Amino acid sequence: MTHLMGTALLGSTRQWATYLDIAHPGPKPADWDTRLRQITAKLEEPGRMKVLQAMGKISPARRR
């Protein structure tokens, strides 16, 4: 939860990558590190982190 809050409040791509690493416990695919770098690079593009942050503000009732 701390990592999600770091992402939501600070817009931290590092916190998001750490969250993803924890959210997928156990053995990782061989390309896991490469994939995390790709995700982080995408989130660093203008506007993308704001979209991720906005997604976290949507109420569960509106997520359908």
Q: Strand content of the residues, in percent?
A: under 5%
Class from secondary-structure proportions? mainly alpha
Residues in helix, %:
55-70%
Q: Which stretches are low in confidence, meaning pLDDT under 50 for 5 or more residues running?
A: none
What does the main sheet amount to? none
> Radius of gyration in whole Å, from Cα?
13 Å
What is the distance, rounded to the nearest whole angstrom, between the alpha carbons of the first and last residues?
Answer: 23 Å
What is the string of helix and strand elements? HHHH
Query: What average pLDDT do the residues reach?
Result: 86
User: What's the total number of strands?
Assistant: 0
Oligomer: single chain
Q: Specify the number of helices.
A: 4
Shape: globular
Indicate the topology.
Elements: H1 2-10, H2 13-23, H3 32-43, H4 48-55
Helix pairs in contact: 1-2, 2-3
Task: Report on the architecture of this protein.
The chain is mostly helical and 64 residues long. It has four helices and no strands. The chain has helices spanning 2-10, 13-23, 32-43, 48-55. It is globular and about 35 Å long. It starts with a helix and ends in a 9-residue tail after the last helix. The model has no long low-confidence stretch (mean pLDDT 86).
